[in-house]
Amino acid sequence: METTAKTASELVRSTPPSPLQVAFRELELYDVGNVTRVEEVFSPDFIDHTPLNPEEPGIVGMRALVENVCAGFTNIVHRVLFYRELPDGLVLIHWEMTATHTGEFLGVPATGKPVALKGIDIFRIVDGKVAELYHVEEMLKLAQQLGAQLG
C-alpha cells in the first residue's frame, strides 16, 4: 500500500517491524508528544540534512524540535498521504500535519488558531533507527497561518 490518509499512530500499530514502521514512529513522536522516545527512534549518530536549527545538530536538535513543536501546538495529528519503502532502508513519506497553535512557536505567541501544513520526508533507516533525514515542510504557509511578520 502506498497511498493512505491514516494517522501516523494508526500506521505504527498496523505496520510490522520494518524501516517503514520506524519512519511512521518518527511522525508519531509529535502526535503523542513523547520526547523521551526520541532515542528509541533516532540513532545516536543521526544526521539531519535540513535542520530547522543548525546550531543543534543530530539527535540533540531533533529532541529540541520535538519539544518545541509539542510546546507550541496541541491536537497534533500527522496524516500520511503517500508512502513508499525503497531499497537500502530508504523510506519516502508525504504527510499533512494539523494542530492548534496554543504556545509560542518560532517566536510567535499562541494564537489559538488551527494550522495545517504538508511536508515530505526521506528517511534512511539503519538497524531499526532513523540514521538520516531529509525533509521539507511548508514553513511559509505555517508562518502565514500564525500571522508571523516575515522579513
UniProtKB/TrEMBL annotation:
Q: Which GO terms describe its biological process?
A: polyketide metabolic process
SUPFAM superfamilies the record matches: NTF2-like (SSF54427)
This chain belongs to the protein called Ester cyclase
Q: Which organism is it from?
A: Priestia megaterium (Bacillus megaterium)
